[in-house]
Amino acid sequence: MKKFDFSGWATRNNLKCSDGRTILKDAFKDNDGQTVPLVWNHQHNGPFNVLGHALLENRADGVYAYCTFNDTEQGRNAKLLVEHGDVSALSIFANQLRERASNVLHGAIREVSLVLAGANPGAFIDTVALSHGDDADGEAIIYTGEPISLYHSDTKKEDEDGGSDNPDDKDKNPNKKDGEDDETIEDVIKTFNKKQKDVFYAVVGEIMSQKDVPDDKKKEEEKKGGNETMKHNVFDQKQARTDILSHADGEAIISLAKNNQVGSLQTALQIYADENNLTLQHDATSSGFVQTGDGNVTLLFPEYKDVRPGAPELITSDQGWISVVMRKVHKSPISRIRTGQVDIRNIDALRAKGYEKGKEKKLTGNFKLVRRTTDPQTVYVKNALHRDDIVDITDLDYVQYLYNIDRMMLNEELATAIMLGDGRDEGDADKISPEHIRPIWLDDDLYTLHVDLDVEAAKKELQGTNTGVSFGLNYILAEALINTVLYAREKYKGTGTPDFFCTPHMLNVMLLARDMNGRRIYSSKAELASSLNVGEIVTAEQFEGKTRTTSENKTKKLLGIIANLADYSLGATKGGEVTHFTQFDIDFNQEKSLLETRCSGALTRVYSAIAIEEPVEELG
What we know:
The protein is an alpha+beta fold.
């Protein structure tokens, strides 16, 4: 009958992870009966990280793993760590994950890993590449935090379902007598709390130490009145341990390092080790001391570990508004956009006329047709990856990582061109032309209403009612902006309810407006959006400090844009959508990547956007 070194839950069903996902029953049922590698902490950078293998069993409560260590140095070392309780938790790496409504429905377990229980206080999914949405496909590292169970040659561990954890031992022991308790010593120890375990191990340690005392010495000690080795109290926590560096040792090492003749901490460690009969283990900066005699290791400088293993986190500018823009603009399958409008407001010649008998009827007057066309332009992101880097970087998918960055930069460039414009100088070969992707802020006054925020006028109006005595500058700015927006909405001709895009600072100015009692005028973004008569307030730090020069050579600073992006058409014909090209250059040993799209963009309705600006005073 085959024995296993230990077992434990690889996954548990209906266990809600910290990121909100829940693993459902039979999500990994296809792994039932399969054997997968047992590795250390999901490391794959060498064969020495493979510790053994794990036999998977799909159960009603999840997937249970029966694990066996290899007879290698790494396997034996890991077995000792498990037996001593230093490592007591499992984790899995799975791919082909299918998710729906935050529920993981299906996946394939590729490995089981031993992990430090202290790093896994509860269930969570350490996402590697798991997309959101229905039928998402990806991969992830999943922790449950469940303890593992040890196996011994003469014991069996009954699981919580009432059956044996050993799949080869499903029947009860036929020689077991009725009423006989098969609870093992290990089972009893597991019921102890931490303090009880410390006492138990201390007593066992003292008893085991007597094995090395010769019988003749024991008799001599008994004649003297007792065993000298047992004169101390095992429950006394104040006794010194020789295998641990004390606080005094640390002070002595630091004091020695401060000596100008020593020069460094490493030299001080070596001197202290020589003077106190200690052996310096490997490099003092990575390990520590080994107490000569018993071989116990005390870590002085533990190794660094990644808080979030895998791909490095990206530090980016604000990306939230970009997804809003790309989601809300109207996508057209036509890349060459043409719009036509006729303004018939205030044309007296178009008015209907009263008829007087016997007189000739007059013709209705003419009107002007306003038409413009917008052609597409190619926008691209090109990159090159050295194959040496692709091969050497093994802890993440370097190619996919760089692709995600390229796609992020492409989306940000398109969203910026739509709202603000490219920002590059005229004549720059890399500029996205405003004739092809027309920026809302810089568009013609026929399409975007440009209105000024007159703070001074608002201040005079409010202070004329003695408001300045009770309210601060934030209140005045908030009221001035709300008045400007509402008055501008009188000329707005866009469809639906527009959104307000502004800087985070502008939003904070309005939210921090207080009354004379110190209470905020607007308690939330939703309340402020209602006062502005907009659907949503979206902040974009990329709007900060943007200015433009008018045809009258005046400088205007952008404060915010109001628009319903459904009135902005982003067009691309088939083949012009975002496409990814890759090619290997054998001359330079590079994997080249090109992310490209060909599209056009423009507002398709007159007076469908409002740009709130502040005049900038020229320094004379």
